[in-house]
Amino acid sequence: xxxxxxxxxxxxxxxxxxxxxxxxxxxxxxxxxxxxxxxxxxxxxxxxxxxxxxxxxxxxxxxxxxxxxxxxxxxxxxxxxxxxxxxxxxxxxxxxxxxxxxxxxxxxxxxxxxxxxxxxxxxxxxxxxxxxxxxxxxxxxxxxxxxxxxxxxxxxxxxxxxxxxxxxxxxxxxxxxxxxxxx
Length: 183
Description:
The structure is a single chain. The chain is α/β, with parallel strands linked by helices. 39% of the residues lie in helices and 21% in strands. The protein has one domain: Pyruvate-ferredoxin Oxidoreductase, domain 3 (3-Layer(aba) Sandwich), CATH 3.40.920.10. The protein is globular, with a radius of gyration of 15 Å. The two termini are 25 Å apart. The model has no long low-confidence stretch (mean pLDDT 93).
């Protein structure tokens, strides 16, 4: 029996955090679990910190609050770590996925696994722009096991078409393979 699991995504306006949450939820639902995705932002402008959330469960999800104690966290922009307490509430045994090419030198809560990936370089190589959401979705799928890659690929194809879909899938696949190969 699967119990409720929660994901919190930290990003900046314009980085695709809300899109990532929606597509992860679509992929999870296609994989056979109930899912829910929603953002938390006000009148922020492009570049301002935003959060998006996803819940997964084997039964209908009736909870409608923000995610305060996530099992998983995605940090799309590592500079947020110095501005926002991205680790706040993460459960022991949780996984935090950080987009950075550097080694994380920030204190991490005990029992929390941090995985770093240079999603920006992958996005630049595959998409030609530093938009990392689909790259990090691939890394999340590999690190968490919450969504399978075929379901993620289908969710990306629902959102994007043609060459843009292929480029986003290629970015997600490279990150997925990189994280699978490291674990």
